Amino acid sequence: MRRELSRRTFLQTGAAVGGGLLLGFTLPPLSPLSPLPPRVRNDGPFAPNAFIRIDRDGRVTLIMHKVEMGQGTYTSMPMLLAEELEVELSQVRLEHAPPNDALYAEPLFGVQETGGSTSVRGNWEPLRRAGAGARALLVAAAAQTWNVDTSSCHATGGVVIHGPTGRTLAYGALVDRAATLSLPGDVPLKHPKDWKLIGTPAKRLDSPDKVNGKAQYGIDVRLPGLKVATVAVCPVFGGKLASVDDSRAKAIPGVHQVVRLADAVAVVAEHMWAAQQGVAALDIRWDEGPNAQLTTADIVRQLDAASQKPGVVARKDGDVAQAMAGAARKIEAIYQVPFLAHATMEPVNCTVHVRPDGCDLWVGTQVPTFAQTAAAKVTGLPKDSVLVHNHLLGGGFGRRLEVDFIVRAVEIAKQVAGPVKVVWTREADIQHDMYRPYYYDRIAAGLDERGTPIAWSHRVTGSSIMARVTSELFPKTLRVMRAAGWHQLVAMVKGLDVDAVEGAAEPPYALPNIRVEYVRQEPPSIPTAFWRGVGPTHNIFVVESFIDELAAATQHDPFQYRRALLDESPRAKGVLELAALQAGWGRALAPGSGRGISLLHAFGSYIAQVAEVSVSKQGDVRVGRVVCAVDCGTIVNPDTVKAQMESGIIFGISAALWGEITLKNGRVEQHNFNDYRVLRLPEAPVIEVHLVQSTAAPGGVGEPGTSAVMPAVANAIFAATGKRIRKLPVKDQLRPA
Amino acid sequence: MVTLKINGTAHTVDVPTDMPLLWVLRDVIGLTGTKFGCGMALCGACTVHLDGRPVRSCVTSVAAATAKQITTIEAIGETPGGRKAQQAWLDLDVVQCGYCQSGQIMSAAALLATKPHPTDADIDAALGGNICRCGTYPRIRAAIKHAAGD
Q1: Which residue in A227, A449, A450, A480 has its CB near the most CB atoms, within 10 A?
Q2: Is the ipTM of this complex over 0.95?
Q3: Which fold has domain A218-289+348-423?
């Protein structure tokens, strides 16, 4: 590949092996909290991290550095490219990218990952620029072929046309010449009014194979000689395997082998059924370790104690103490949200073949290079000898940002001759997940005579996922912090988890005196991790519930109370008004019903929701309708945005009403979908999504819908019953005494 | 040795008769479109048809499936109900991660075969056992009505 030295150019071109045009491009850094449009990095060393290949038959291949877990990247990313490249969406083919941080890193984390609602935000500009650059080369190649001026040619539908004569050349016929040309210095992007694809509800490219059983997830891998294993992990976190009698398990037809790990036993068999029977037949003694008596109440006590001490400052404006002292009224509350499991429909699984000279992984992962590094560490092989064959993900929600299950699979595979597919049962998936942290929040406000908040204090206490992840990322930590910005670097060094306070540190409301703190308190041995929205999943619940409390305490309408605090946040105000209007805010509801509103600014997007609930005499909550207004800036695919809102809302209602992982005797008390209840089709509300047309930079849409619905539901419950929900899930809190 | 009639083809397999059909389909025969979700008939991801009736293959033994016509997602498009459901799923872009959708479509196809114009209550009853964590429920309901031409 030839490197273009111009500082303005970030594309590089070259001839593809076997003919055709190959392009590389760079992705811009993106600050996690910044709503600003991502900017293309045009200084520093050139490091392309995604590739486009155009073959002689005109087929365009995008080497996808983002994974598809339902959020629609396999459609939105090709749309960005096809728009500027001037090809039909159906001409773009996708390949899963191999693990390579140097080529495919998401600049936000410095590693190749899909998460944090970043795909469109991070790729919005570079993918379009890549398409525009490629198109310019192809047009130049055609002009050269015809010996005409480039300006007399244009491209459409994968063909270059010479205007004056009407002659045409397909891209496939131009790629070899195009690969020899230098990129023009600055190719302008299309004006939004000329977009053909962006802003249209283009059909998902991954649908056909997902309705006929052909789509291949990690769990579907088939290999010659493949064995299947399943695991029994020590039920107590932090415990170890003491001894195991495997004689009965080995007698089961189809069982090949029993593998011992430090804290687990795996049965390797001909098929999953034999493996499961084998595990059931094991006689295991665990050394349960120091957490054998641990309960959720113990963890909450620790959080409560930690929350009474000052934390690291995440935000400080004005003088909260003085404003609080001068307030006409002070209101304070404690809010709590539980540990949550991800419960992706595809239980975690990983297929591994360890050989003396290398290792292959077949898995669906949000972090292919982590997977590679983890396997290299466990096997002692060089990273280059570890191949990761990535797959479609049967749900991610953050679960597949972790490699714990990959590490375990490789540990098992090291002891097995030939490839082995390690599949977690649903029970193992739920009881040995890495959980959304339990957060314990203290929040207080001082109000003036009219009820307006003049002081705001919020202390978040919980475990730090960012601290764990950045320490795991070391020595990439500096790069991660640089990507996040120096301001955050300083905060992180001081112990701030920027993710844990997202949605709390910068509420959209006018709050002249505000102090937000973070206290890190790790639960003993309970692994915590990202979960669809992470920080905002609890902060938006806390802030939006508390604002509702302030409105109620001062006899204000919750919509009008919020609205009055939004003069400086026009986009926030816009979605709030739109949601209220579309929901028919203020219109009467049946007795036992209520309407609740919420507002969110996170992931670069603004969302307001109005939920309508009814509460039965037995205290059961039914969410009947959710109206959702979204301003996520420029919309690439409106149908994907709507789908992600529907998805996030349903995911969030499950969590708000029933989602909870609890501990007793150091063990997770939930097992399967019978006691880790999730919303089912008859329980799903009517969802109406209203999109704001905007030319602002795109915001994320995968996660925010989940965070916004939880307080909307809780506030609707308050409207229906007068009971304020300060602890999730709602579960039995409304049962008559 | 047991002979199973799957999607019109006879398969003779050497498995215990109490083995769940799910694992015979996936791990022995290699029809991986039928998914494992819970193993306890709680989520519906493993739904297949026995003589046209939807069953959870994770709790259906091989013994209970012999002498029956077994239809899986790979062949449901050859039935009128299955074809209509698949087309409606495409028309309305129902899928997200897609993992549960084999089971959703199998349940929908069975419903459409017996009730060409299902009511909301019919849809609730037929699809209530199929969990989707991506929350495609509103589109599933709409797609079934779309398939029915309602």
Answers
A1: A227
A2: yes
A3: Aldehyde Oxidoreductase; domain 4 (3.30.365)
Residue A15 in this model has a pLDDT that exceeds 70: no
What are B39's two structure tokens? 């193993």
Interatomic CA distance for residues A229 and A226, integer angstroms:
10
Q: How many CA atoms lie within 13 A of B105 on its CB side?
A: 37
Residue with the bigger pLDDT between A276 and A466: it is: A276
Phi, psi of B133 (to 5 degrees): -80, -20
Planar angle of CA A402, A348, A643, nearest 5 degrees: 85
- Residue A272 is nearest to which of B27, B37, B40, comparing CB atoms? B27
A395 close contact with B: CB closer than 8 A: yes
Helix (H, G, I), strand (E, B) or coil at A270: coil
What is the domain extent for residue B37? Answer: 2-71
pTM over 0.90: yes
Tokens 């698949």 found at: B86
Output phi, psi for A525, to 5 deg. Answer: 65, 0
Residue of A nearest to B100 (CA): A345
In the stretch 33-52 of chain B, residues with CB closer than 8 A to chain A read 33-40, 42-43, 45
Please tell me the predicted confidence (pLDDT) of residue A34: 28
Please provide the CATH number assigned to the domain covering A12-210.
3.30.365.10
CATH of A298-339+436-464+500-721, one of 3.40.50.300, 3.30.365.10, 1.10.10.10, 3.30.565.10: 3.30.365.10
What residue ranges do the domains of chain A occupy?
Answer: 12-210, 218-289+348-423, 298-339+436-464+500-721
Decide if B90 and A344 are in contact by the 8 Å CB cutoff.
no
CA distance B108 to chain A (A): 12
In the block, tokens 């011992």 appear at A260
CA A404, A405, A407, A408 torsion-angle sign:
positive
H or E stretch covering A360: strand A358-363
Q: How confident is the model at residue A35 (pLDDT cuts 50, 70, 90)?
A: very low
Tally the domains of chain B.
2
What is the number of other CB atoms lying within 10 angstroms of the CB of residue A41?
15
